[in-house]
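Hello,

Following up on my earlier ticket. Below are the two sequence lines again, exactly as submitted.
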Amino acid sequence: MKTLSIILGVATIVASNLPVLAASVPPPGAASCSGCHSAGAAASVSRLYGRDAGEIVTAMTGFRDGSVPSTVMARIAKGFTDDELRAIAAWLAAQK
Amino acid sequence: MGISHRISRRKFLGTSAAAATALTFPLPAFAQAAARVVVIGGGFGGASCARALKQIDPKLQVTLVEPNKTFTACPFSNNVIAGLRSIEEQQFGYDKIAAGGVTVVAQAATGVDNAARTVTLADGTSLGYDRLVLSPGVDLRFDVLQGYDEAAAAKMPHAWKAGEQTLLLRKQLEAMDDGGVVVISAPANPFRCPPGPYERACLIAHYLKTKKPRSKLLILDAKDTFSKQRLFQNAWKELYPGMVEWVSLSQGGKVNAVDPATNTLITDFGNHTAKVANVIPPQRAGRIATSAGATDNTGWCAIDPVTFESKSAPNIHVIGDACLAGAMPKSAFSANSQAKVCAAAIATLLSGGTPTAPKLINTCYSLAAPGYGISVAGVYQPKNGVLADVEGAGGVSPADVPREFRAREADYAQSWFATITAEVFG
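Thanks for your patience. The regenerated structure is below:
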């Protein structure tokens, strides 16, 4: 197998493929957002794909500390650290 | 892309020096096909997962096995029972999923041979897989409550799978004279949609209050506590005073047997004869999960909390109501969240990677009346081998808030249904 793998020598292709896959795999928590926040949402519910990442982080930290009033979002935002929120926001911002 | 995929899937490592040469070699037949993922069950879990797999890695051969051409959604089906919504608004097809490159097979899966990695279909043909996803939902148990079998369900509907049963319960309520007693029998945990029986009680009470105000609604419960309990009980007092009565397990609420001939529900403490009886029986994972070797002695499926891979059947992943997801409730929102995490984990595994620990969210809305919504939410992560609540997060709507808050949550509930069904089927 090792010989075959060297002959096939696909490391460059693998290397070019994996980041594509990695980029499309959402960071922890991000995949759940679209259940409420994608196309079809009422005007009162924010659509998050393609939204500015900074706005998303500001909103989530505001929900979390209570400075931005909410119904359910405070309960959800409290489940995430600053780093997690930044990663989620960056991923959402990159989606179409 | 195809080459890189199959190579990485086989965990080949090597240098790039001979890449051009490599392409001239005939490749083994098994390596030429893209990885095959079969998803069994076209509900919120399975349909979401099939779509997510194709979105994450378009090269995957994804097959969705679902015998029904039309899916009838359970969330909001209590509104149909209460005459507030049509069944057609609950129904969705698979055309858009097929148009996205998922092969939709309109047959029942009758068996799984995980050693051979094949799924047998109702017509006797079989499908091979590299990874199998089971999202079979629940089977209602017709072997627990004495007298409650499928024939009894035609007289005393469960309405716990949306469709004909939903309409049957609605017709029975419409046919009932004012002053009748409606009885709901609620099962012990775990079961599909933990707040569902209590939302149903609210919306049936709304119908009775509006059309048949001398009627009563009795809930016979096999539990002493239930989801969003304080909020529901407050709503019963506030909205339906004197109409709704809840009998807990310790008060003798557990139904042991039924007599469909007389519409009687039998507990240790006595008999209750109903004009309309809604019997929600105990449940278990859909039976295909047992064929696949994925159920344990509880009748449900233990899973790895990172990948949703079965703890007893390698290469088989279980999502949605059928799996034991720790603190996550059996809800459409959970199934959809799990589906997307599971799809990403499968794509990572098939490309030779190691999935990292996910976080998942659930939000369940219930309506206590039109325009009166309440919710429970949670955030979950793997801990000690199960999905556990992230401490400090989640919980239910506040108890003492103005009706405007309830109205907003009712609006969000409607919006959620529109959004999630668009994501899954639209």
